[in-house]
Amino acid sequence: MSVEDHVFKALAAGADLVALARPIIYGLALGGAQGVTDVVNHLNHELKITMQLAGTKTIADIQHTQLFK
Fold it and tell me: Which of 32, 39, 64, 66 could make an S-S bridge to 27, C-beta 3.0–4.6 Å?
């Protein structure tokens, strides 16, 4: 299970905010500010793919019923 899958599940369960520390810290440690930017861009891209696979176009479209599909 990937980070973006956990983000999607948290949003579907009703979360208004999802905090991510480990990937951001790894990006910072390995690449400084650019590493953090790269990690955020990668997570954003992967979350968009997860959303497309679930049939959602926006974060607001994510519903708890998608946890059981």
Answer: 39
Quick one: CA dihedral 56, 61, 66, 69, positive or negative?
negative
pLDDT digits (tens, 9 = 90+) for 55-66: 999 999 998 887
The widest CA-to-CA distance across the chain, in whole angstroms, is 39
Quote the pTM value: 0.82
Looking at residue 41, its amino acid is N
Listing DSSP states for the chain in one string gives --HHHHHHHHHHTT-S-----HHHHHHHHHHHHHHHHHHHHHHHHHHHHHHHHHT-SSGGG--GGGGG-
Query: Which of 49, 38, 68 lies closest to 7 in space, CA to CA?
Result: 49
